[in-house]
């Protein structure tokens, strides 16, 4: 037969173990959610670029901090990667498109290769509009153009179009 003292001790130990288990479960849940939330906003995710009305039709606007350039036509907007497809140098935006200062590759305004040594066109990035601002999916490079169509009268009404 067990004594009342050892029963109390057993109960105390059981409560301590159960409490530690509950704390461990809660911490696991909290850190799991923090980790998941952090990954949603990592470099592989969407980046807010600028208000949509900043981009006038017919412009090519570089954002070297994000390694992209925003191209705006009369009714569409898109984002092209600014890393040279030869060896990855950051491209300059020039009148006719893009120029690589490292080895002289030239690209057209839609990322097409005009002259090497680069042989591959520039990648595109998916874009979207939210609350009047342009967002670009930085982490994923697309091998074909991806436009967001802009409907009149303003940039609030947009539809997706992949060419
Ligand atoms: S890195 Fe651009 S041409 Fe070589």
Radius of gyration: 26 Å
**How many domains?**
2
Strand-and-helix sequence, N→C?
HEEEEEEEEEEEEE
CATH topology of the largest domain, which one? Rieske Iron-sulfur Protein
Mean pLDDT: 82
Q: What compounds sit in this structure?
A: FE2/S2 (inorganic) cluster
Sheet/helix structural class: alpha+beta
Q: Give the overall shape, derived from the CA principal axes.
A: elongated
Structure, described:
With 163 residues, the protein is of the alpha+beta class. The chain folds into 2 domains: 1-40; 46-162, Rieske [2Fe-2S] iron-sulphur domain (Rieske Iron-sulfur Protein), CATH 2.102.10. The protein contains 1 helix and 13 strands, in the order H-E-E-E-E-E-E-E-E-E-E-E-E-E. It has one helix spanning 4-40; strands spanning 46-51, 59-63, 68-72, 76-81, 92-94, 97-99, 106-107, 113-115, 124-125, 127-130, 133-137, 146-150, 158-162. Strands 2, 3, 4, 9, 12 and 13 form a 6-stranded antiparallel β-sheet that branches. A hairpin with a 2-residue loop joins strand 10 and strand 11 (133-137). The longest helix has 37 residues, at 4-40. It is elongated and about 90 Å long. 24% of the residues are buried. Residues 36-43 have low confidence and may be disordered. Bound molecules: FE2/S2 (inorganic) cluster. The site of FE2/S2 (inorganic) cluster has 11 residues, from loops.
